[in-house]
Design brief:
about 950 residues, alpha/beta, seven-stranded mixed sheet, 24 helices, globular
């Protein structure tokens, strides 16, 4: 038989001649990537299989990073404005001129009044470094983007359990059987969640999604709860009501690990009424069931009594648990009472509560792993409850979001599912009690560093950032009576406050990767007007604006000086345990980025630019005693900076390369990271894997690694004493009390037990005139604003319709291809609509940040993003509608200052189709021109 010749097919062609391993920057997951190079250029990006975060999995965003580092919108040289602000008219200048200009603006400020500089950064992931720079400059006016993104989630978790979701912790994906998620943005933590959901589904586990919109993760949920926006907290507290009524709570867990058995002082009218009863050593007291006497909560052998009462000085003090039970057993939280408000039938609420109880208690299990708790008692097993939760911005970005986040943590605590097998697990360096965090500092003095870190966690009114006359010390009014617990600052209020000169005027606004003139601002048109407004003398109200970005975003046009950044494959970055690390529940981990390719433009990494500016300005943290530079650039800082002796930005390969966490500086540290795939991992010992806040093995390991300086076990704070201190002040106690116009707000919102109140916007908005809720969500294929300039990702999301539920669709007679006018108390937009059935019937929504302004991002003026794309931001104001009291109230959570993006109420009606989405703005001149019509990526020669 004659053989037939067949062509030889190369099924695995070489796509590169070199692979360099680094860390992705296309979202905040910070996955490990293999960057394939051919002839020195990026040819292909894949996941790193050895990386602890993604284990080789890579999403569309990560793979398309190649289009990010070749984008035509990349800035090319430093720029100095030569036309009016907003025109986009610039001249290219040298770096020497750019840095001399910046110093000539900044140096007089520092010598005279450092608080005249407002330095705010966007999603840079180097906040420990940028805050270090600002602290050494001496300005109190520093923060990053968390105030309009997730501060409610972070602060609500830290004040309650010592950590929160996402970067702070994760479900025990290997053991959980019921996973419930609330309001999760699909671009956050996307690869780990997708991998975890795959594990869960493969084991037959169940997913319950609570979200007004059924997309993304909710689309694969076994049950979907299409809740009314802003009512999540009420729904959660109703679940607590049912669990308490049916007795499905973990009493042992509550007694051992929370402040549920601690005694609440009952002494009406006193300065300590409602605080926890303490012993002489300052420790909270419980009643020991064996002795029936008060004892410190951490005393060995103590068995706290949840139902105890204690008579002292004629008063009866009850436990936190009794106060909690009285609160949530009230019929105000019954499913039948809350169903209409939440948009969830009472039967559904009871069914969800029953399922949580069934899995938590009927499917409980134990791990045969001995461990010793902080009281010195040894346990032979680790009991587990296979129920876990996750939540993000959807519940956070409301004016009641802080208390909603606390409520969700209390729900977890009642079920006993935090830091147990099968439940929610902390990632190192968390958990941390509030007392382990700094308090905010604000004392600005000429030619001096700030007196401490800008941001932190207040314990009471004494920690507020106030001037001697009681006015806010910060331009954003963070840590003032307006927003006392604003742990991340209020970036969304900086420009409007600076423009109004309230609480004072500033000289220079310094922004990094913060697209404040477009999608990162509420009241977008108003912010653009503020940035360009002039006073009676013809000078700009905000005199100077310095901006750094890698791309020609909308904000570029409004700056006076542009310091062009590199892309993420062209610079050093440090994903640090001091900042936002990449830890997993079983391990501490950090990572770097490094220049896997060299820039082909005259640009510099922003962090290195800050080092240079720090030297030129003579900032103490950046120069030696003789005035010479302490660090050559940011890479040098990463290696040689020590936050305290032996503790630097990176925990791995210290000393001779074999020291972990604590250790001497290793000049070859970055090389060791690169050899290891650009990351470092140190695993938690098995004995310390669970029960971390109370587990001596974990606490000792954390001290050895340098996460803590000493063990710091603590109780979960169901009942929050810091909040009660503020409430007491509002009731007239103490030396620092809120101004009269804020007294009621503080008293009502700072309840020490989680409470629900309607979103503040509802009180000042006529619900009959604006009956529809309006939301944005970020898609999995985009991260904030920069994804929609990406040639590959634009094929997925080049435009964004307004999704409308069936009832509203039919009432307005909408058809495919129709447009609608959407009106809020602040403004109106005219946009394309699309029908979506799996949507809360009183809610419309769209994808976030798809819409672009003509002239930005090197897009063609006819690009769909600039004509069919749009922002809901035009409908949102940083202030609430006037309510007749002569005041304008911030559109924020009154506790933390979190921007209340999702409180938006609108009305919708059919409209004739315009030529493009409205409002439409004049094109801005692009300093980088326009991208090519056709983009080709050639992999092989």
């Amino acid at each position: 038989m004659r053989s037939q010749s067949q062509p030889i097919v190369d099924t695995s062609p070489a796509v590169s001649d070199e692979i360099r391993k680094t860390t992705c920057y296309m979202c905040a997951c910070r996955c490990g990537i293999n960057v394939h190079l051919k002839d020195g250029k990026v040819a292909y990006i894949e996941g790193n299989r050895d990386h602890p975060v993604n284990k080789g999995v890579l999403c569309a965003k990560g793979a398309s990073g190649i289009m990010q580092v070749t984008a035509p919108s990349r800035l090319r040289k430093p720029l100095k404005r030569k036309g009016p602000r907003g025109s986009g008219e610039f001249e290219e200048i040298s770096w020497d001129e750019a840095l001399k200009t910046a110093v000539s603006w900044l140096e007089p400020i520092r010598k005279d009044s450092p608080d005249k500089l407002a330095f705010f950064t966007g999603r840079d992931q180097s906040q420990s470094f940028t805050s270090f720079w600002a602290q050494n400059f001496g300005t109190p006016n520093y923060a990053a983007h968390g105030g309009f993104c997730s501060v409610n989630m972070a602060a609500g978790g830290i004040y309650t359990i010592g950590g929160a979701f996402w970067e702070f912790g994760q479900p025990d994906w290997d053991r959980t059987k019921l996973f419930m998620l609330f309001g999760v943005a699909e671009d956050h933590d996307s690869n780990p969640i997708k991998m975890g959901l795959g594990k869960l589904k493969a084991r037959g586990g169940k997913v319950i999604g609570v979200n007004p919109v059924r997309s993304g993760y909710n689309a694969i949920a076994d049950e979907w709860v299409g809740i009314t926006p802003g009512t999540d907290g009420l729904f959660i507290l109703s679940l607590c009501h049912v669990l308490l009524r049916t007795g499905h709570i973990d009493l042992s867990y509550l007694a051992q690990f929370t402040n549920a058995p601690c005694l609440v002082i009952n002494n009406p009218g006193s300065d300590d009424h409602g605080m926890l009863l303490k012993g002489e050593d300052g420790k909270a007291l419980v009643i020991d069931r064996k002795t029936e006497e008060p004892a410190p909560f951490d005393q060995k052998g103590v068995r706290p009594d949840l139902s105890a009462k204690y008579e002292m000085d004629g008063n009866t003090h009850r436990t936190v648990f009794q106060v909690l039970a009285e609160r949530y057993l009230d019929d105000a939280y019954a499913p039948e009472t809350v169903a209409e408000t939440c948009g969830v039938p009472a039967k559904k609420i009871r069914a969800v509560a029953a399922e949580l109880a069934r899995v938590a208690f009927e499917e409980a299990f134990e791990i045969d792993q001995p461990w010793t708790d902080f009281r010195g008692e040894t346990h032979q097993t680790m009991p587990g409850r296979p129920v876990s939760f996750h939540a993000m911005r959807g519940v956070s970005a409301h004016s009641n979001g802080f208390q909603t986040c606390r409520a969700l943590h209390v729900l977890q605590i009642l079920l006993g599912t935090v830091e147990v097998p099968g439940g929610f697990r902390f990632k190192p360096p968390y958990p941390k009690p509030v007392t382990a965090h700094p308090t905010p500092h604000c004392k600005a003095k000429p030619d001096c560093p700030l007196d401490g870190p800008h941001l932190g966690f207040v314990r009471g009114p004494e920690d507020l950032a106030l001037k001697d006359d009681g006015t806010p010390a910060r331009i954003d009014k963070a840590f003032s009576w307006d927003n006392p617990m604003s742990a991340h600052g209020l970036m969304h209020m900086v420009i409007s406050n600076a423009h109004a000169g309230d609480p004072y005027k500033i000289d220079t606004l310094f922004l990094y990767m913060a697209n404040m003139s477009w999608n990162s601002s509420m009241n977008t048109r108003g912010v653009m007007e503020m940035l360009t407004d002039k006073d009676d003398t013809g000078d700009y109200v905000i005199p100077r604006i310095i901006y750094s970005d890698a791309y020609s975003s909308e904000m570029v046009a409004y700056a006076d000086l542009i310091l062009p950044d590199t892309t993420y494959l062209e610079r050093h970055d440090c994903i640090s345990l001091l900042d936002r690390p990449i830890c997993e529940a079983d391990a501490a981990a950090d990572a770097i980025r490094w220049p896997v390719i060299e820039p082909d433009r005259d640009v510099r990494g922003f962090q290195s630019v800050l080092v240079d500016l720090g030297v030129r300005l003579g900032l103490p943290g950046f120069v030696n005693e003789d005035g010479s530079a302490k660090y050559a650039d940011y890479a040098d800082y990463i290696v040689n900076h020590e936050r305290r002796p032996g503790i630097g930005p990176l925990a791995g390969f210290r000393g001779n390369g074999d020291q972990v966490g604590r250790g001497d500086v290793n000049p070859n540290q970055l090389d060791r990271y690169i050899e290891n795939g650009s990351f470092f991992v140190e695993h938690v010992p098995e004995e310390g894997a669970f029960y971390k806040p109370w587990n001596t093995a974990y606490q000792d390991w954390a001290v050895k690694l340098g996460l803590f300086d000493k063990p710091q076990p603590y109780l979960f704070e169901i009942y929050s004493e810091p909040m009660r201190r503020f409430q007491l002040a509002a009731e007239g106690h103490g030396d620092r009390q809120p101004p009269d116009h804020l007294r009621e707000q503080v008293r009502d919102s700072f309840d020490p037990l989680p409470v629900w109140y309607p979103p503040l916007g509802d009180k000042s908005t006529d619900a009959s005139a604006y009956p529809v809720h309006a939301l944005t969500q970020r898609p999995m294929a985009m991260y904030h604003s920069w994804g929609s300039q990406n040639a590959w990702l634009r094929q997925i999301h080049g435009r964004n319709p307004l999704y409308v539920p069936t009832r509203i669709w039919e009432e307005n007679g909408f058809s495919d291809g129709d447009w609608a006018k959407v009106t809020s108390p602040h403004g109106e937009i005219v946009v394309p609509v699309a029908h979506m059935a799996a949507l809360n019937e009183n809610t419309v929504w769209t994808w976030n940040a798809i819409g672009k302004r003509k002239g930005a991002w090197a897009l063609d003026p006819s690009a769909p993003e600039a004509n069919k794309g749009f922002l809901l931001n035009h409908l949102i104001h940083e202030l609430l509608p006037a309510k007749g009291d002569g005041l304008r109230w911030s559109n924020s959570d009154p506790i933390t200052g979190q921007a209340a993006w999702f409180d938006l109420r609108v009305r919708i009606e059919r409209s004739e189709a315009p030529m493009e989405s409205q409002p439409a703005f004049d094109p801005i001149r692009s300093p980088v021109g326009r991208g090519p019509q056709t983009v080709r990526q050639k992999v092989r020669t």
